[in-house]
Specification:
581 residues, five-stranded mixed beta sheet, 13 helices, 49% helix, five-stranded antiparallel beta sheet, 18% strand, alpha+beta, 16 strands
């Protein structure tokens, strides 16, 4: 940080921190760079040697399969009676009889040679081509392409009246590479062929990293299989005396290969260079050495950092811990330090003074708003209930049932007296139940025989204090959504004291025999959504949830479910409270 004089002050935390970090890290960086370079070289050589041994093993296995085919071809060319009869046939009939016998022989024997795709016999004398394929048969177009390629090569060498090969040679036909081995037996050319991709198929399951793999390549370095492994990244696939190399113009790849003794091709594995060093023992040993090297430099760096950073931070943290416990008068004690920390400490002390004053104001305002909201929630009057009650009185007056009019009027008086009294935070359960029974009686006069109720309340809970209207609200919700004149509805209320967690609580259960809560309502309750009816008015469920949250915070619980087979169930657990609040 620049001081007032315009010079870089050593008291600046920037200068001190950079100095401390350099003292701590520069020696480690030098050691790690050297160790990393040495480790990469050693690990790459070890991995290359390991893969080279594996390539040698697989190449010998592939050569062994090809050698078995070689022996069979040479035996057939030297002593095969079927091939001899076909060569010496004088008439077309004799030729085709010998051809059928040879076809059967080759068809029976090819089963023993899983490493090839087919045998072929070419007779220039009769201008005829015979081909026998394994169970992995080629397509018709492929068969014709192979036949045409062999015949074209014969025509290209008229001086020897055909061609002769004592090893497997690579040929590209179309976009596919093949291996051919052909011998001349009298006037016939007998041999075998295999797709290059078939030779590599058993090795596909070997893992070479996310972008590595194994392929066959010609002697000049052309990929015969899996050419996609080198797309967009030029790789030199020619295998030298060492057996491996690092190649790639965009992404470095370790190329490890082994030449075939039976043909002019190589087996090559490609291992991404960035994946070679994963999970190797050398780096585990290096990781154990780093802490010991670090211990040499850590004490000096920590002593330096402690004085310029840790001690000022400790003073700041100590003040914050005191504030966290509720002591808003805590302040950071002034002491000589970096100019940044001095500024932070001064700002912090000033900020805490302002917060302490603001918190008192906000706390008073919050209490006032919660008190007003609670009173507003408790004073909500359902206009439909009021109008329905007047309508009942009007209907009773028309039939001159004065006794019911008197009872209805008395019930309404008690109902509204309790509603205006409910500005209190808590009422006794006895008063809440009497109010609920009075409300139920009003509704029974409205629905006649379609509504009945039952209350199960032991005497020892009558003096427990609960928020007003929490029972009547759910009873009202049931009557509004479940009670009809078509089918009777029963409402059951039970209250008792139970153990919930580490403290006793009052349990209130309200259950009806109606249709129960819709799935959409239960899902909205689980998600904590604010429920409204079609007119946009708050439902009683949200009203009770909000009041319980204001009064008990997170100590009260409420659960909504459907009974079996029908009916809605509301369970509430409230902290036990027997004193006036």
């Amino acid at each position: 940080m620049i001081s007032a004089t315009g010079k870089l002050s050593f008291r600046s935390i920037r200068v001190k921190l950079i100095s401390g970090v350099l003292i701590l890290t520069v020696p480690l960086i030098v050691i790690l760079i050297y160790s990393n370079a040495y480790a990469v070289s050693v690990v790459r050589n070890q991995v290359a040697e390991s893969y080279s041994n594996m390539m040698n093993l697989y190449m010998k296995s592939m050569d062994s399969g090809l050698e078995d085919v070689d022996k069979y071809i040479n035996n057939m060319a030297g002593t095969g009676m079927e091939l001899f009869a076909m060569d010496k046939a004088e008439t077309e009939e004799d030729y085709y009889k010998a051809k059928i016998a040879l076809y059967r022989k080759l068809n029976d024997d090819i089963i023993m040679y899983k490493s090839i795709n087919g045998f072929f016999v070419l007779s220039p004398k009769w201008d005829n081509f015979l081909q026998v394929q394994s169970s992995q048969s080629a397509y018709y177009d492929e068969t014709m392409n192979i036949q045409q390629d062999i015949q074209d090569r014969l025509k290209a060498t008229p001086d020897i009246n055909g061609f002769y090969s004592n090893s497997w040679e690579t040929r590209r036909i179309g976009n596919v590479y093949y291996l051919f081995h052909t011998v001349k037996s009298g006037g016939l050319y007998f041999g075998a062929w295999v797709r290059a991709s078939n030779g590599i198929a058993p090795l596909k399951e070997i893992r070479f990293g996310a972008s590595g793999g194994m392929l066959l390549a010609t002697r000049d370095g052309t990929a015969m299989t899996d050419s996609s492994l080198s797309e967009g990244n030029y790789l030199d696939l020619v295998i030298g005396a060492s057996g491996y190399k690092i190649s790639g113009d965009k992404k470095k790849v370790l190329v490890v290969g082994e030449q075939s003794d039976k043909g002019n091709f190589s087996l090559v594995s490609l291992i991404p260079d960035d994946e070679i060093l994963e999970k190797l023992p050398y780096f585990q040993r290096l990781a154990t050495m780093i802490p010991f090297i670090t211990l040499i430099f850590i004490p000096l760096g920590l002593f330096f950092l402690r004085k310029i950073i840790l001690l000022p931070l400790s003073r700041l943290m100590a003040a914050m811990r005191r504030i966290h416990t509720g002591n808003l008068s805590a302040r950071v004690e002034p002491s000589p330090s970096s100019i940044e920390f001095e500024y932070v400490h001064a700002t912090f002390n000033n900020m805490m003074g302002q917060i302490q004053g603001l918190k008192n104001d906000v706390y008073e305002e919050q209490i006032s708003k919660q008190r007003e909201e609670l009173q507003a929630l408790q004073l909500q009057i359902n206009p439909h209930f009021f109008l329905n009650s007047l309508n009942i009185i009007y209907s009773l007056a028309k039939v001159k049932d004065y006794e019911l009019i008197l009872e209805m009027s008395q019930c309404l008086i008690k109902h509204f007296r309790f509603m205006f009294k409910s500005t209190m935070k808590f009422v006794h359960i006895q008063d809440e139940i009497e109010h609920t029974k009075n409300y139920l009686r009003i509704q029974e006069l409205r629905f006649m025989d379609s509504l009945s109720s039952e209350c199960s309340i032991p005497p020892y809970v009558l003096n427990v204090l609960v928020p007003p209207l929490i029972i009547q609200t759910f009873v009202e919700n049931t009557i509004k959504h479940s009670v009809t004149l078509d089918e009777p509805t029963r409402i059951a209320i039970s209250i008792d004291i139970v153990e919930q967690g580490l403290e006793p609580c009052i349990q209130i259960v309200i259950q009806d025999s109606g249709q129960g809560f819709p799935d959409s309502v239960l899902e909205a309750i689980r998600q904590g959504s604010r429920l409204t009816n079609e007119q946009g008015e708050h439902l009683g469920i949200w009203n009770v949830q909000r009041r319980l949250n204001l009064l008990y915070q997170d100590r009260a619980q409420i659960e909504f479910s459907n009974a079996t087979p029908t009916g809605a169930v509301v369970k509430m657990w409230l902290p036990l409270n027997t004193a006036e609040t």
